[in-house]
Fold:
Amino acid sequence: MGRRILVGAMLALMMGAPFAGRTQTPEAANPATDDAAKNAAKARVVLDAMVKAMGGDAWLNMKNQYREGHYAVFFHGTPNLGTTKFYEVHAWPDHDRTEFTTHRDVMQFFIGRQGWEVTYRGKKPLPADQVEDYLRRRDHSVETAVKVWMKDPNTILIYEGQQLAERHLADTVTLISAKNEAITIQVDAQTHLPLRRSFQWRDPEYHDKNTDAEEYDGYRPVDGIPTPYTVTRFKNDEMIRQIFIDKTSFNQDLPADFWSVDTAEHRIKK
Structure:
């Protein structure tokens, strides 16, 4: 993982790692420690500005988000024919429900650490690799970075300077958790809205490292919350899916049985 090596080297330099054969005094270590603290403070300023730009308390305290749109799937950069209609509700921290097709007769639930699919044939657990992929992305989302990682005093924040993302100048911040996992967020230097989120993970079968990234574009204000209407997913820098939002809203009043897989199964089988 090139970025992890870079981050490790940066941390070593910032924490004042001594040269071999050279004794380091406490006085000599202080400037490097101060630099590390200043860098972390800069990273937090960027992230705090991002949260404020996304709506502040309105975004932090939202009950749920509804998204309706369609997506295209890509293979080696070439889109498959057609797009798929979807209707999706996300409720923090771990409830997601998506309905597919215009008839909304195919559904997927990700509740807690489990995933289910419901069709006219009934309900069944989703394949383990599909569940793991979804949960991995949810565990490394911008929302999780802010609501979980930033609140953990053991999380390391690193400001990596300004880079280009989505043709915009962006402030780049990496968060490293106590489990030594990392999330990198690139924030528009002018609007302070997130442009790109990426993380790396090791394939359990082939043991190579993969990069998962999302880019956000087409922001529009919805209920006081700037919302991206285009989300593009990448795996190892290759586009694999592009999501286009037609309609979105926040804080819907949901039926009491909305998250019941059994209720969904009964409705579709009727």
